Amino acid sequence: MKYLILNGSTRRGNTWKIAGLARERLLERDAAAVFEEIHLSELQLPFCIGCSNCFRLGGQYCPHWEKLIRVLNAFDGADGIIVASATFNLRETGMLKNLLDHMCYLLHRPRFFTRKALVITSVGGVGGGSAAKSIAGTLLGIGFNRCYRLSLGTASWNAYAPGEKHKSRIKKATDRFYKDVASGKIHYPSTSILIPYNLFRGMGVNYAPGTEYETEDGIYWIEPRRQKRAYDTDIPLTIIQKAVGGIFYVLGKTFGKRSIVTYKKSLEITGLPSERIDM
Ligand SMILES: Cc1cc2nc3c(=O)[nH]c(=O)nc-3n(C[C@H](O)[C@H](O)[C@H](O)COP(=O)(O)O)c2cc1C
């Protein structure tokens, strides 16, 4: 199995210690496990400038695509993904939030349907759970099949030393994640994922080629495998889920028609060459 460890912390501190123990546990379970590391502090991804090229034209039109594609390729190439972050102001670090901002277009056009994640947050005292929930929310929204969460209170800025209780919690969470990744099992999506997916599916057809305001969303959602099914073809669905998805598809299509999003931007706002912001 191949694992990616994405370190969203600004340094290799408390959070990295926890991620390191998770990695050790994965190696205990599978001596042949292979790891790739991405440290966001080294990736140096500039802030998302809000040009919306990714939504309208495609991710490859992001001015920071060369850096973003490194992470997306690593997601594609891993069986299991560990996303680790310190808790800053009750959320993930700004650095990780910035990466997730760059992935927002994938909420419109999800793609990582068979991927599974373990989200690890460390926290001084308060907010680690909400930070983990925030990260997992985005990962599930861009398609991830399952996200396990682990949040540990470090009560220290620098000298965190995981005790037996924390080691046991790390082992437990890592084992659950490992078993799921190794099983290759694909889970049914939750209703909270199915609803936005199908609203986007319905809204998306209003942007298809040949409509007044064509975008990448339109191209993505009119693909026959997406048009005909309430979730990706790799993922199982119950009959009820198919019906619920169908209802929200119709709602998205109907109400989406009434308010077309145009992403009009001015040069002063984006600072990008005019050919990229001509709509
Ligand atoms: C800018 C900043 C904001 C923080 N915000 C919180 C917070 O909201 N709640 C909390 O309990 N701890 C907070 N902390 C403490 C860290 O979450 C905690 O020390 C964490 O283990 C640091 O992880 P790291 O060593 O990987 O950077 C904050 C620390 C910093 C530097």
TrEMBL record:
Gene Ontology molecular function, alphabetical: oxidoreductase activity
Keywords: Flavoprotein, FMN
Full protein name: Iron-sulfur flavoprotein
InterPro entries hit by this protein: Flavoprotein-like_sf, FMN_Rdtase-like_dom, ISF_SsuE-like
Gene3D superfamilies associated with the record: 3.40.50.360
Domain NADPH-dependent FMN reductase-like stretches: 1-132
Pfam families linked: FMN_red
Record has Flavoprotein as a keyword: yes
Residues of the signal peptide: none
